[in-house]
Each structure stands twice: as C-alpha cells, then as structure tokens.
Write a sequence for this structure.
C-alpha cells in the first residue's frame, strides 16, 4: 500500500498523443487534498503523482470519500485545501452513466462519439453491444448499462481514465475482459485511476490508495 | 460537438420525450378556455401572455434536472471549457420547438382579435426566447436543491416584468405602436437578458456540480 | 476581506448597533406615534390618513433592505464570507415582513379613501414585485441542503433582482404614463405640510431602530446555528 507520495515539481505540458510517445513526466499531481461532501470527507491530506502507463486503485469503505477524490481528480469539485496540477484529456465515468433513459443505445453511442470525435464502432465491438443497439436504455439490465457506460471510454482518444467503481454489476467474464482492456490501454501509454470497495486480485497490479473512514 | 448536443436535445424533446407535446397541449387547452369563456376583450392579450409565460416557465423548470442527475453535465464540465455550447443548444432547440409552436398558437388567437399575424408572431417569438433564457437561468440556480416544482414561476416572475410589459405594449390591439420603437425595445430586451442569463447560468452550473 | 467580516469585530459592531437600535426604536416610536396621536384630522380623509405613518416608513425600509440584500450578496460572491450571507438572509426576512405591512396598510388605506382594495398602478405593482422577489429569495435559500450552495444561488438571484428592480420601476412607470388608468385617482402621497412631516421622520427613526434590532438578532441566530462565535 502506498500512501502519501512526493511533491510536485517543475513544469509540465499537456499531452495529446497516446501511442509511441515516451512519456516521463507525470500526468497529474495532487497535493495535500482535503475535501468534504455531505457525510463523507477526506480528512487526511492526500498527495499523489499520477504517472503514465500506471494503474491506481482508490479503496475504502462506503463513505470514505472515494467518489469525492475521483471527482476532484476529474476537476468537477474543488478541494477545501490543496491543489491539483496538470492537464490532459480525461474520461470520467462516475456513478451516473450519462445515459438518458429514453434514448436508444445506438443514439447514445452516436451522441458520445460525435461529442468526443471518435467512432462508435470500436465501442460496439469491444463491449458486444450489437444485439442491444436499438433498445431504449430503460430496457437494459444493470450489467448492460454498466457495459454501455464503459463503452464511452472508446468513443474518443483519452490520456487518462477516471472510473468510479467500474466493476460493479458485472459478471466474472466481463470483469476479466475489462481487466485485459485496462492492461492494453496502459501499454499504449494511458493511465487509469479507479475506485473499489475491497481488495480483489486483478490481472494487473495497481498502486493502491487507501482512504480511512473518518470515525 | 455542437451537433451532438443539438441532436440529443432535439431527440429528447420531440421523439423520445413527452415534455414538448405536453406543453403544446396544455397551452392549447388554456387558449381554448380563454377564447370561449366569458372574458373582456381588453384583458385578453394580457391573459394570453400571462398564460404563455406561466406554461413555458412551469414546463421548462426541470429542463436541466435529467442532465444533472444522469451525469451529462459532469461530462461537459470535464471535457469542455464552460457550458456555453450546451446552454445555447438547449435554448435554440427549446425556442425553435416550444417557443415556435406556442407563438403560432398565440398569433392565431390574436388574429381573432384583429391583429396582424406575422407581426404578432415575431413579437411572441422574441418574448418566448427571453422566457426560455430566464427559465434556463432559474433552472441552473435551483439545480441540486430539493424538489422545486411549484416555485419556478414565483422565482422567475419578477425577472419577466419588463418583458411582459414590453410585449403587452407591442401587441396592444387598440393603440398603434411605432414599429421602430418596438424594434429598438426588442433589441434592448435581448441585449439585456442574454448576457445576464448566460453568465449567471454558467456560474451557477459550475457551483452546482461542485456540491453534487 | 473587510474587517467587519471577521466574527469578533462583527460581534463588537453589531452589539453596539443593537443597543443603539433599542434606544432609537423606543424613542422614535414613542415620540413619533405619540405625536401622530395628537395630530388633527384631515379634512377629506378623516383619521384614516394616519395609517400613512406606518405605511411610508415600511415602504422606505423595504426598498433600503433590498439594496442591503443585494450589496451583501455581492460581498458574499466576491469574498465568500459567510457573515455577509447571514446578514443578507436577515434582511430578506425583515424585508418580507415590511413589504407585507406596506401592502396591507396600503390596502387598508385605499379602501376607505379611494373605494378599492387594489389597482394595477406603477407604485403598487412594483411593491408587489418586490414582495415576490423577497419571497423567491427566501424559498430558494431554504431549499438547499448545503449552506454554501444556498448562499451562492441566493446571491446570484439577489443580484439578478437588484439589476432588474430599477428596470421594473422604470418600465412600470413608463407603462402607466402611456396608459392612464380609467378612473382618475390621486395615488401619490400629497405633499405634506411640515407639521405632518416631522412625526414621519420620528416614526422612520423608530422603524430604523426596529430593523437594526431584527437584522442583528437574525444574523446572530444564524451564526449560532453554524457555530460561529456568538456570546451574548
């Protein structure tokens, strides 16, 4: 378990290409973050350097502040103290799926790919959504919705994935496939930070950040 | 990117959702009651405008709630600089569909009062544009609050008053109004409301996401 | 940040204001309303016109409190200091009550004098709109769970209203000069002779004391709720 890490130093420029670029500077650096949201709060300051080609896992019980931390990393929430430095093209997939219940799957995918400038075919192939394309989203099961939410990762080129509990609602087959996807992505040069309840053995070896529950 | 936002809003408003048609239906019912119930012709324009403002602002009050709840605003915040394209897409789609249809219905009603239909239609399109701007701003301000269904009209009513008076004056069937004054007045309305509503909506959206 | 924003300094200042407010209220109200009691009756309206001495100060302070509300909301947006927000909320509460008093006394005055409870006049309409602005602000403030969000949204709404209020007044005036009401009614207050004017100022001072009292007390209550230092 690795906790508080080094301080950020030096300048960094924003990165735009993934494959074939030797990246040595960190993507993002979090310095002494303290934050709160509702009942959960990050009381112990967290400092972290996020480097390319690495996977980070945020762990903690319910209410420990995992979602808050991920939202701060994504830039959606400003911390009470501390700074987040760095930039990049992120994809943030939180608890809400960005899926409007009335639209069909193919319409949602088209909207996402037009928004991010990628194509929807990769997403459909990788997540096996062919059979679901013309169904409205309220007809999908939770697992299918989770797959669709993760499909957004393939609708554009991102430097960095921020995922809030990506393995929830998925069965064993899909969990393995997604772990493999994580590995492929980091080999190409991206980084991933995701959150989880408890420690599970995974195909990859992530660096863990453990959040203590304030008691 | 703007195309995706526009496409999403158009789909949600017309084909996949029921809000657009509910607005039109409610308004038609209101106009029918106004036309065939006993009323004094002097007040009919004021009543019509009040009905228009009320129905549009009540129905549009939850314009952003789904986007907030399902994380679409998060997506925009992470990957885009500011909310302006998102806001403009909403405004244009709602103005085109809801504003356009309600203005047509109202212009038809006013035709029976002896007004010129094209001219009334233009004035009403202007006022529906401003109503949508203001309602969007109020929706941004109440994002993240506990359910706020009835209060949107109370909150936005004071902000409409200049618009209401201007439209009433422009549509007054008895007094002849100089068209140049009306044009200038309309321009003034747009120049006043647009920057105010857009800046405040932007600010309010960012804060609302901060507390999510 | 202004020095007044610091809690201890604010408590010192507001305690002095509170004591001054008590004195002002007692003196102003007793002297002012005592003088009103002894004023002669008006030839046309009888004793009813004395309701003016409640109606006019209420109207003045309703407007002044809205200006204070807008100003403190603006300070909150710039410096994010919570006490500005509490003062704003206190002004909103007191302002609502005063606007309501103004409207009700206006109606009570209007019925015997002009024969009608209400008419869509410039001044009356704009006071009604002010009432809705206050009520809307309070409803918005109370509907959020987190005080930071309530303060931010409320401040934005207050600023929109503040920008809009002069325009409402101007446009409603302009509207009613264009369209004269059908019946000729003397709706503006007649210019008062001096002997009627000085009790008005005394009453206004009394009301000022009362307003300061209420605003301080409500601000302290809020500060206590948020556990910012309040020692009575």
């Amino acid at each position: 378990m690795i906790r508080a890490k080094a301080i950020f130093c030096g300048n960094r420029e924003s990165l735009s290409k993934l494959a074939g670029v030797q990246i040595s500077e960190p993507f993002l650096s979090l310095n002494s973050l303290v934050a709160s949201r509702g009942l959960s709060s990050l009381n112990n300051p967290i400092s972290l350097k996020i480097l390319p080609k690495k996977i980070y896992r945020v762990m903690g019980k319910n209410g420990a502040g995992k979602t808050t931390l991920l939202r701060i990393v994504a830039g959606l929430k400003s911390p009470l103290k501390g700074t987040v430095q760095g930039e990049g093209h992120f994809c943030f997939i939180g608890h809400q799926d960005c899926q409007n219940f009335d639209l069909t799957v193919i319409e949602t995918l088209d909207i996402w790919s037009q928004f991010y400038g990628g194509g929807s075919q990769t997403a459909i192939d990788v997540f096996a959504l062919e059979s679901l394309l013309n169904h409205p989203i309220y007809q999908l099961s939770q697992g299918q919705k989770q797959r669709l939410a993760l499909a957004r990762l393939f609708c554009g080129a991102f430097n960095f994935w921020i995922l809030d509990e990506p393995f929830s609602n998925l069965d064993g087959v899909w969990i393995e496939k997604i772990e493999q996807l994580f590995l492929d992505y980091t080999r190409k040069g991206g980084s991933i930070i995701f959150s989880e309840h408890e420690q599970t053995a995974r195909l990859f070896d992530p660096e863990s950040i453990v959040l203590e529950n304030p008691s | 990117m703007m195309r995706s936002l526009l496409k999403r809003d158009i789909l949600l408003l017309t084909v996949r959702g029921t809000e657009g048609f509910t607005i039109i239906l409610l308004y038609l019912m209101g106009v029918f009651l106004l036309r065939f119930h006993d009323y004094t012709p002097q007040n009919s324009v004021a009543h019509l405008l009040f009905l228009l403002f009320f129905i549009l602002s009540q129905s549009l009050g939850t314009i952003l709630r789904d986007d907030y709840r399902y994380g679409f605003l998060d997506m925009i915040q992470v990957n885009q600089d500011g909310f302006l394209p998102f806001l403009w897409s909403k405004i244009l789609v709602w103005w085109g569909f809801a504003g356009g249809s309600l203005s047509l219905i109202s212009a038809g009603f006013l035709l029976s009062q002896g007004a010129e239909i094209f001219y009334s239609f233009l004035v009403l399109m202007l006022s529906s544009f401003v109503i949508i701007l203001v309602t969007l701003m109020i929706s941004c301000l109440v994002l993240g609050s506990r359910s706020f269904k009835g209060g949107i009209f109370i909150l936005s009513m004071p902000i409409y008053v200049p618009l209401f008076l201007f439209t009433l004056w422009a549509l007054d069937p008895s007094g002849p109004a100089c068209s140049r004054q009306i044009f200038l007045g309309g321009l003034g309305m747009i120049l006043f409301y647009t920057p105010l509503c857009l800046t405040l909506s932007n600010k309010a959206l960012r804060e609302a996401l901060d507390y999510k | 940040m202004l020095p007044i924003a610091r809690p201890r300094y604010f408590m010192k200042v507001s305690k002095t204001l509170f004591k001054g407010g008590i004195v002002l209220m007692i003196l102003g109200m007793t002297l002012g309303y005592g003088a009103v009691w002894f004023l002669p009756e008006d030839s046309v309206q009888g004793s009813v016109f004395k309701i003016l001495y409640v109606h006019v100060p209420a109207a003045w302070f309703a407007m002044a409190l809205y200006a204070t509300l807008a100003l403190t909301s603006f300070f909150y947006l710039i410096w994010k200091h919570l006490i500005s927000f509490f003062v704003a909320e206190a002004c909103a509460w007191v302002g609502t009550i005063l606007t309501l008093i103004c409207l009700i006394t206006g109606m009570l005055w209007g019925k015997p004098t002009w024969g009608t409870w209400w008419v869509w006049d410039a001044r009356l309409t704009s006071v009604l709109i002010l009432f809705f602005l206050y009520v809307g602000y309070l409803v918005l403030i109370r509907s959020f769970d987190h005080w930071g969000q309530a303060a931010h949204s409320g401040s934005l709404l207050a600023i929109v209203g503040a920008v809009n209020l002069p325009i409402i007044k101007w446009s409603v005036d302009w509207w009613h000069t264009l369209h004269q009401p059908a019946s000729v009614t003397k709706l503006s207050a007649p210019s008062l002779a001096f002997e009627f004017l000085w009790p008005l100022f005394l009453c206004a001072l009394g009301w000022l004391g009362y307003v300061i009292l209420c605003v301080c007390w409500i601000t302290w209550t809020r500060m206590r709720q948020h556990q910012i230092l309040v020692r009575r």
